[in-house]
């Protein structure tokens, strides 16, 4: 793969995209659950989004909830849909033969004859990718699926409810149609992708989305700045958010290193919002005002979003939604915390207007004092 920086100004004009009757780059059909603001998208309610479906897998955790369903699987997605959430988030990569598949890690780990080996997802064909893990046909035996932990240990990917690996098309076809999709465009942090590669990958994904999305709400997001800019240029139907650690980690690409840099990228590229690590927001709460003044939406992700108090604070701060692992607990907490105001509770309230959570001054003081402790977790 060529190591060449991508400049959006170098991307071919839209009329150079091959024609495909199922891939309309000029569609004006807007996703439900988002509204047009200035020339961007506004989020009308506080969103709860299931991380990789029902929650990411933490295989070494003593908390069985982190191993309940295989992450990024149809089973996990539909399990999440049983709770009052708005979207699920999942990771999309494209195989060597141009098929978008759902998988988080850059490589697949397996074992053969006692030897552990890894293969990059994007180097596999679709058939090879689907050959790992459980198989849809009982007569077939898939290759073992392993995972490397943060401490370097390699373990079996054991969960309570396992499932087959899946494609983006299958996800559209088999997941509850009322559930929105936050599609993360997944790329390796350590590779600089050339223009042609990014274009080919995004075109493969967009073809599936435009053919199978129908009226399903969609949000695109990516940590890869050039991919985010390019997918926004290639289509105007769905909002595109830039993913950032919010300054909690430093990268060679300076566009990824702060919330301020994220705002600059969004404004220059016409993106619709930011998804930040929640610690980055708590450490720099003043950035929320700047993001709102720029008329950008703001979502967050991270372990702290599994703490109800941290979610309460974010709603008070004006953040638009949270990506969570504990789907049941957080969705129920948000439902109890934020209820639509009734017409008789205000003179000029429109139907369905969302109320802010109500706290006493003492409770608010406690929540604000909690922030430094939360950040240290």
From TrEMBL:
One GO biological process term: glycerophospholipid catabolic process
Protein's UniProt name: glycerophosphodiester phosphodiesterase
Sequence ranges assigned to domain GP-PDE in this UniProt record: 46-334
EC number per UniProt: 3.1.4.46
Family named by the database record: Belongs to the glycerophosphoryl diester phosphodiesterase family.
The keyword Cell inner membrane is annotated on this UniProt entry: no
Alphabetical UniProt keywords: Glycerol metabolism, Hydrolase
Gene source species: Castanea mollissima (Chinese chestnut)
Catalysed conversion reaction: a sn-glycero-3-phosphodiester + H2O = an alcohol + sn-glycerol 3-phosphate + H(+)
UniProt-listed InterPro entries: GDPD, GP_PDE_dom, PLC-like_Pdiesterase_TIM-brl
UniProt cross-references to PANTHER family, sorted A to Z: GLYCEROPHOSPHOCHOLINE PHOSPHODIESTERASE GPCPD1, GLYCEROPHOSPHORYL DIESTER PHOSPHODIESTERASE
Gene Ontology MF: a single term: glycerophosphodiester phosphodiesterase activity
Any Pfam family matching the protein: GDPD
Keyword Hydrolase among record annotations: yes
């Amino acid at each position: 793969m060529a190591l060449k920086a991508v400049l959006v100004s170098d991307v071919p004009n839209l009329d150079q995209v091959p024609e495909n009757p199922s891939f309309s780059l000029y569609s004006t059909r807007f996703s439900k659950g988002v509204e047009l603001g200035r020339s961007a998208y506004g989020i009308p309610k506080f969103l709860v989004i299931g991380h990789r479906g029902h929650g990411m897998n933490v295989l070494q955790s003593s908390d069985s909830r982190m191993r309940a369903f295989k992450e990024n699987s149809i089973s996990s997605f539909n399990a999440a849909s049983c709770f009052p959430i708005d979207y699920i988030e999942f990771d999309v990569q494209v195989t060597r033969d141009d098929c978008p598949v759902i998988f988080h890690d850059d490589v697949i780990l397996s074992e053969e004859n006692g030897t552990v080996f890894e293969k990059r997802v994007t180097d596999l064909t679709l058939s090879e990718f689907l050959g790992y893990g459980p198989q849809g046909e009982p007569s077939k035996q898939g290759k073992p699926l392993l995972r490397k932990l943060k401490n370097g240990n390699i373990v079996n990917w054991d969960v309570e409810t396992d499932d087959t690996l899946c494609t983006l098309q299958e996800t559209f076809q088999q997941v509850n149609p009322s559930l929105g999709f936050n599609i993360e465009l997944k790329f390796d942090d350590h590779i600089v992708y050339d223009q042609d590669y990014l274009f080919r990958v995004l075109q493969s994904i967009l073809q599936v989305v435009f053919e199978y999305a129908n009226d399903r709400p969609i949000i695109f997001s990516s940590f890869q700045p050039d991919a985010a800019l390019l997918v926004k240029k290639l289509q105007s139907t769905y909002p595109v958010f830039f993913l950032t650690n919010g300054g909690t980690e430093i990268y060679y690409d300076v566009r990824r290193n702060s919330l301020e840099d994220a705002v600059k990228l969004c404004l220059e590229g016409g993106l619709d919002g930011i998804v930040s690590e929640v610690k980055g927001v708590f450490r720099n709460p003043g950035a929320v005002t700047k993001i709102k003044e720029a008329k950008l939406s703001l979502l967050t992700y991270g372990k702290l979003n599994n703490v109800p108090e941290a979610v309460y604070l974010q709603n008070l701060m004006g953040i638009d939604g949270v990506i969570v692992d504990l789907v049941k607990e957080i969705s129920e907490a948000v439902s109890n915390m934020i209820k639509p105001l009734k017409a008789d509770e205000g003179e000029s309230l429109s139907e369905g207007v969302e109320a802010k959570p109500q706290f006493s001054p003492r409770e608010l003081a406690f929540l604000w004092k909690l922030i430094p402790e939360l950040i240290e977790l």
